Amino acid sequence: GAIVGGLILGVVLNYVTAYQMLHRFADLREGQRLLVHGAAGGVGTAALQLGRIAGLQMFGTASKPKHKLITSLGATPIDYRSENFVERINQLAPGGVDCVLDPIGGKNWLASYRCLRSGGTLACYGASSAVVEGKLSAGLGFATLGLLKLIPGGKRAYWYNVKSLRDSHPDWFREDLTKLFTLLRDRKIQPVIAARLPLREAARANDMLEKAQVSGKIVLLPQP
What we know:
two-stranded parallel sheet, alpha/beta, six-stranded parallel beta sheet
């Protein structure tokens, strides 16, 4: 019941987001390179699972305790706290990556853009840095995204919102959701569940997410 409902919600929100950024926006192909920020989170783990199915060469930023998970999902982990991810990508993927998924925002978008090869795609789908740095930082971040779109050189930068894309391309949403449920049925994807908490602990769950204390999703269970 509740657990199944949580898994279905994870597919709808996390896997559709990851799938559409990888395949609708970036149109990635086998052997291409992907950098995922927040790689141990819900969308991040979904992207790594889908990227492995697609045969991508993957890199993921996360704190050190989460590197084992990143490796198990087929990606090379990068410690964003102790390593400069732009420098690490230059070492690990000379010439740059084909796609970066960035939910952080602010100055991170600019650094992510620098990791792209010519023709690469930066998919921005969040601005978590604004939670820490304030509303002004968020505004500057979106201004940065606008400027990135104007830079010549063949790189692309997009803002992704699952609701907007669903409304503008309902056919895509139906097709992608069908593919994802087939992958789930065949156990080719498996949502990473970090914790199962009673609904009364929703505030605690939100605090855990904000402090990056979990890997994957938190499922809230209704009280009996």
